[in-house]
Amino acid sequence: MFERWSYLGYTLMFCLPPLVLLWLRREFASRMARDLGRILAASLLLTVYGCIIWPVALKMSAWSYAEDRILNIKLFGYVHLEDAVWWLLISFLLASFISLSIRFEEEGVNIFLREVRGLLRSFGCALRGFRVLRLERNLTIHTAAATFVFLEAAFLKVSALEWLALLLAAGAVLGLELVNSTIERLGTRLAPGHDEEICLVKDAAAAAVLCASIVAAAVGAVIFLPRILPAIL
Amino acid sequence: MYPYLVFLLLFFALPGLPLAWALRKDLVRYRKTALWSLFFVCTIGAVWDWLSWKTGVWRYDSGQTLGPWLGGLPAEEFIGFYLLGTLLIVLVSFLFLRGGRHV
Prior knowledge:
The complex is a heterodimer.
Chain A: H1 6-24, H2 26-33, H3 36-59, E1 64-65, E2 74-75, E3 79-80, H4 81-106, H5 111-129, H6 137-155, H7 160-190, H8 196-232
Antiparallel strand pairs in A: 2-3
Helix pairs in contact in A: 1-4, 2-4, 3-4, 6-7, 7-8
Chain B: H1 3-22, H2 24-29, H3 31-54, E1 58-59, E2 69-70, E3 73-74, H4 75-98
Antiparallel strand pairs in B: 2-3
Helix pairs in contact in B: 1-4, 3-4
């Protein structure tokens, strides 16, 4: 997939997202930061060890690399650059994770169960939020329109790119309509009478839906009209 | 003779097992951490490993491995690399993070 960058590409692709996940969140980062020196020391030791033993494995023919899938840059003329990066990232990732997990274990918190439960709860709330679909007129209209568009696209066998455009357009309209409904309800609850500022906020939210709807209609026209018009005319 | 197995035993098991014995109290106390590390390596790491093998980044000499293969990866990869390799990283991390406090 990445040709000569394959090894490095996969290493970065699989190591950096979990590192972002661990270090971006303040709750996690603040705990791991207390061990940062020790995490770095462990990572460096493991990296040096890995850089010494990996070329030995290659010499022993434990495995081999494809010449066209690696950069062929050797640090100190001994170890492949990718191997060093692999060891550094893997060690840092696992040491960070272990530091975090130990901290939570000591606090008596089962962090994985807590996170999974939190995620499921968020999904549950989001799914329950769809009940607005049945309460708002405009949302039901947009949902019906999206159903029509998707059925038409299926019957007309539109291409993958066209599907992508339709899904993005419909998703934007429905998503913005949900936000608009929320703002409408919140505004009405906050200011039951007439309030100029609230009115402006509600109008702006409605305008955002209109913008997305116009773009969605244009996308639909570009995709469907060339197929439908010749059959009608 | 099975160079991959010899390599894993020599460089992962040999330093890992005495370290595991020395840090056994930490290993028992924080077994959930060790098991979760193993779980992530065996799931996300396995996908990565398989993808790299499938796209030809690295390859194994079938004549020089133990025999059983799973999804294109030799048995040594699972027993030695995932288990012993992860254990070694976990133990070195324990050593630095816990400073052998329970030894």
